[in-house]
Design goal:
Arc Repressor Mutant, subunit A, 2 domains, alpha/beta, globular, Rossmann fold, 10 helices, five-stranded parallel sheet
Length: about 210
């Protein structure tokens, strides 16, 4: 049997994906996780053939979790789920090592096809996301302001956009307040902004607030 780990903090979505995958005779959801700590613990403790990972995981967050999975199990295929647009998160997730990117809006209908594709070693991306990836490789493509942020800076921006304080962000990401403040300073500098209000406004307009 092909063993799949489903990681999402929404029980209803986990159940729906589990039901769909379990209808396939050779697929089984052998484990579930609702936060980043559980994901990494289960990956360290057991063998898996594929992971379905929510990008907006509680705790360290999906991108950090994805980086750690890549470090622990470089060959393990990871299909990222997200409620966010491909434009804002898809390219970043693939660059971070995801094997595919699937919108939660279509997850129940597409997850079997997506999982089977990443199991073959191929990427699962929509035609729209494939075009964005090509643009991202084009040095003449300027991109949006936040696309120049590192993954950590991007995560901090998203959390600021959601109204979290520096202390709250530090607690959730398991980093010091000083470190988060440093990231905030870099974000302001790179985005040519001067305060949190501008960051919040930008994050809301671009659909980045998590």
């Amino acid at each position: 049997m092909i063993r799949v780990l489903v990681a999402d903090d929404h029980p209803l979505l986990r159940t729906a994906i589990k039901q769909v995958l379990s209808q396939e005779p050779d697929l089984t959801v052998a484990g579930e996780a609702e936060d980043s700590e559980q994901v990494l613990q289960k990956i360290g403790d057991q063998a898996w053939d594929a992971v379905v990972l929510d990008l907006s995981m509680p705790g360290r967050g999906g991108l950090d979790t994805l980086h750690e999975i890549r470090r622990l199990k470089p060959e393990l295929p990871v299909l990222v789920l997200s409620m966010h647009s491909e434009r804002e998160f898809g390219v970043r997730a693939i660059k971070a090592g995801a094997s595919g990117y699937l919108s939660k809006d279509t997850a129940v209908y597409e997850v079997v096809h997506a999982v089977r594709k990443i199991l073959t070693g191929k990427k699962y991306v929509s035609p729209k996301l494939a075009e964005m990836l090509a643009d991202a490789l084009d040095s003449s493509h300027a991109g949006l302001t936040h696309e120049h942020l590192s993954d950590r800076e991007f995560q901090v921006l998203c959390r600021i956009g959601a109204g979290q304080t520096v202390s709250q962000i530090a607690g959730e990401m398991a980093l010091s307040v000083k470190t988060i403040s440093t990231y905030r300073g870099r974000i302001l500098e790179k985005m040519h902004m001067s305060n949190n209000a501008e960051l919040v406004r930008y994050a809301i307009v671009k659909g980045l607030a998590r």
